[in-house]
Amino acid sequence: MHIYRSHHCGELSLADAGSQVRLSGWVHRKRDHGSLVFVDLRDHHGLTQCVIDTSDACFAAVEAVRNESVVTITGLVKERSAETVNPNLATGAIEVTIAEFSVQSAADTLPLQVNSDEDSGEETRLRYRYLDLRRARPHANIMLRAQIIQSIRRRMVEQGFTEFQTPILTASSPEGARDFLVPARLHPGKFYALPQAPQQFKQLIMVSGFDRYFQIAPCFRDEDSRADRSPGEFYQLDLEMSFVEQQDVFEAVEPVIRGVFEEFSDKKVDAEFVHIPYADSMLKYGNDKPDLRIPLEISDVTDIFRDSGFSIFAKNIEKGAVVRAVPGPGCGSRAIADRMNGWAQGEGAPGMGYIIYAEGEARGPVAKALGPEKSAEIKARLGAKDGDAVFFACAVEAEAASLAGRARVKIGTDQGLVEQGVFRFCWIVDFPMFELDEQTGKIEFSHNPFSMPQGGMDALENEDPLQIKAYQYDLVCNGVELSSGAIRNHLPEVMYKAFAIAGYGPEVVDGKFPGMINAFRYGAPPHGGIAPGIDRMVMLIADEPNIREVILFPMNGKAEDLMMAAPSEVEDRQLAELSIRRALPPKKT
């Protein structure tokens, strides 16, 4: 018999009754019944109940061992009595009578309970992550993640994609987030950067003559933590394809995403991923990552309030504001309206105007100022009925859209309108190529500087830059952005012109992107790609509200690894080797 185990702890069944077996694992739980002690032994595969009585020579050792100690048990498999069978356990029809017992590794007093769902707090969980991962739900989440990645790899290979690995040490690139920099010891004063994404490399793979590339790519961005974004690093399904249009990318990605969600979740998955232009998404949903499970659409009612009797909105419209209306089914009460107004103030807005529709009339200060005709027009435009309310956001377009979008989600959630048990996917398309920086008044890239503008060079030369759309797209599921992608610009002259519009001369392009711009001069195929986030997909499938629950060893919200004590100080001699001197900010008093 093997020194540690003949079977794993999730394997034994009635067929093994009467067999001598050996199991190794962690003491999950002990139960002392006086003359008997039961030990639930756990390993990666499952749990087996073991039992010993006071007459056995091993009894004292079993009784003394702490939970989470690693032990080896040898004994006889016996059928449980009918009244003690556990139908919720794979091994619930048997138990092992302990004949031999040895402790491989004794556990100290535990800082958190492994055999409980009790939340010990994030700091404790992350500091002792190796204990936290022994718990059933975190352990299952990490296994789910591994299985999802395996499924993705299989599906990509079946579609003719080849997996390549791109460099981790590369050049700093202005791609929207802060780089993590790595000092180059052999080149004093110079730095590598960890890749924010393999963007340039995957395009260069296409220029190199490969046709369909993918990898499960690590990406590094020095940005703040959010519930759906881990600080420091994350993983994405990075892919690129040659000789494709936008629809070709969609047709390659959709079966992979849909297949993974169907394979690992019981929820319904949309048969069709709807396409929503960026401008429509911002108008109807108030953002570019709409949760389509909420059956509410925002409407623009600026025309109704312009030159109206509601002077606050009318005057703001004259100054360039817009008015967005959010339907509130079942919100037709003063109490709900006041709560929404208070909520908006808590969000940093002056408040939210509202109209309550009841008993065939429109009520509230807005309705009184507008008059019955305009109030009725709003009711008709939004499809409201008696018992409903309509809420209004009046501000410059971006602010009004944002507040209305958040109000839409709040109303949908508070009123129980969010469709359950379903994944609703959509493509957001036709992003603007450029946008105006409101602080500087300068034109800048709105999404990805390497995207192909719709209309190509002709559009760049002859159209208002703020009206030019790009072949850029986002994949969204249930209000979570899963990925961004684009058909790439593969023509040097178009790249130079696009950067010139954003205020960058050819010397900037040549200096910041020498590998790519030079490669484009030697024949580059039309190409495009996308990069769905692995962490976010697993988070949605596992139905976890926080992305850290599906990452093996995550950092906390302050970008600290409490378990490994990172980031940490290094010795002066290490800095000297790298030609680096400390210049710490003054301590806050």
Give keywords.
589 residues, five-stranded mixed beta barrel, 19 helices, 24 strands, 31% helix
Task: Describe, in plain words, how this protein is organized in 3D.
Helix content is 31%, strand content 24%. The protein is globular. The mean pLDDT is 95. With 589 residues, it is an alpha+beta fold. Helix 4 packs across helix 18, helix 5 packs parallel to helix 17 and helix 7 crosses helix 13. The termini are far apart. The protein has an 8-stranded mixed beta sheet, with helices on both faces. A 5-stranded mixed barrel has the order 1-2-3-5-4. Strand 7 and strand 8 form a beta hairpin. It has 19 helices and 24 strands.
Described by the principal axes of the CA atoms, the overall outline is globular
Distance between the termini: 66 Å
Strand order of the largest sheet: 6-9-10-24-23-22-19-12
Average pLDDT confidence is: 95
**Gyration radius from CA atoms, angstroms:** 30 Å
List unreliable stretches of 5+ residues: none
Percent range for β-strand residues:
15-25%
- How many individual helices? 19
Query: How many beta-strand elements?
Result: 24
Based on secondary structure, the structural category is alpha+beta
Q: What is the share of helical residues?
A: 25-40%
Could you give a short account of the major beta sheet? 8 strands, mixed
